[in-house]
Specification:
The complex is a heterodimer of chains A (133) and B (120).
Chain A (H helix, E strand, L loop, with lengths): L2 E7 L2 H18 L3 H22 L2 E10 L2 E10 L7 H4 L14 H7 L2 E7 L3 E9 L2
Chain B lengths: L6 E4 L2 E5 L6 H18 L3 E5 L8 H16 L3 E5 L3 H10 L7 E3 L2 H13 L1
Parallel strand pairs in B: 2-3, 3-4, 4-5
Antiparallel strand pairs in B: 1-2
Classes of the chains: A alpha+beta (133), B alpha/beta (120).
Chain lengths: 133, 120
Amino acid sequence: MNLGSSVEIITEWDIVAARQLGRNEAKQVGFGTVDQARITTAISELARNIYLYAGKGKIEIERISEAGLVGIKIIASDEGPGIPDLRKVMEDGFTTSGGLGAGMPGVKRLMDEFKVISEVGEGTTIITTKWLH
Amino acid sequence: MKTRIPILKLNEVLIVSIQWELDDQTAIQFQEDLLNKMHETSALGVVIDLTPIDFIDSFIAKVLGDVINMTGLMGAKVVITGIQPAVAITLIELGIRLNNVMTALDLENGLDKLTKELEA
């Protein structure tokens, strides 16, 4: 069973909308305050990356269940410039925006599963999951 | 949709209580408002209380870090108070360090710390 909702990221305000949606979903799934903060922060970072690098895109938030576990899946997708060097963006401290955004390694640490699919000139999709333990 | 964060003056200290989730515009407006208020009042210290805040992302952290450095340039000291456990955990996991920042558990301890610092 998948329950989902999504927010189009076009303006700064949509970043706020996406993280509020994420926090509500996380609360409803039953995550505690620390995990709620992790999920909210991860969504905020992903939405900001879309806003900064791609201009527009979408954050989808799904409640998932698998093998007796429940969790939350976030899909951040855009049709922006794509990431030329995936290894580099996964290094701590790498930035092309002058220090805005904590970057991908930070988001990866906040979540349980993290996958990036990116094609230069085509766009980027990031899929990240947090399980309720 | 523009909200401003109130800045209160108590003797030589400015007190700011951030009560709701900050959006980008409000955060940047706050930066400017605080520096202007310091200039107007010749305040020597600032306490920023974050007790109601349940998450801080890298952007808000950067604005806060910048405001602390800017305040330092103007000759005042800042104490950040009331950082919740969830906020502390996510900031560190995210890889954000607020270096050289005075912090305290709550507003009361923060004011004490600042007063001692200003007397020293």
